[in-house]
Specification:
With 141 residues, the protein is α+β, with helices and mostly antiparallel strands. The protein contains two helices and eight strands; from the N terminus they run H-E-E-E-E-H-E-E-E-E. The strands form two sheets. It has a six-stranded antiparallel β-sheet with strand order 1-2-6-7-8-5, with helices on one face. The protein has a two-stranded antiparallel sheet with strand order 3-4.
Length: 141
């Protein structure tokens, strides 16, 4: 059972971090193991050559990891990204991008997540990311 539902996460973000979902992201799934985040891209998100910009993919990965943490641990406004490694595997064309996040390790101070980014309906990822978050102190834990 997730610590927070999609609706609870959306309400939490609207209150403490409204810009987190301001890029047009839609939360499809959050549970105790991970999250699914989608974004429909268009010409505003493209670099020359028709490729979705790297910062868009990085933002999807980072936000997906944060949502997975909220789903696993509950409302942690001060959890922050400490590392984000991105591997661009092939051209990310415009359309609906899906960020599938899986929590790899949840410790007392760090959380490591793996994010696979692909176009909706395609199995092969366009990018993969490993994201590490530092957690705030949780009352003596």
């Amino acid at each position: 059972m997730p610590a927070m539902s999609v609706a609870e996460i959306e309400q939490f973000l609207a209150r403490v971090f409204p810009q987190a979902l301001g890029h047009g992201f839609v939360i499809e799934r959050v549970d105790e193991r991970g999250s699914t985040l989608v974004m429909t891209t268009d010409e505003r998100h493209l670099r020359p050559g028709g490729t979705v910009q790297g910062p868009i993919l990085m933002s999807l990965a980072d936000t997906g990891a944060y949502l997975a943490i909220l789903g696993h641990l509950g409302p942690l406004a001060l959890a922050v990204t400490s590392s984000l490694e991105m591997h661009f595997l092939r051209k990310a064309e415009s359309g609906t991008l899906v960020a599938q996040t899986r929590l790899v390790k949840v410790g007392q101070r760090l959380v490591v997540a793996q994010v696979d980014l692909s176009r909706r309906g395609e199995d092969e990822p366009v990018a993969i990311s490993t994201v590490t978050y530092t957690l705030p102190s949780r009352g003596g834990a």
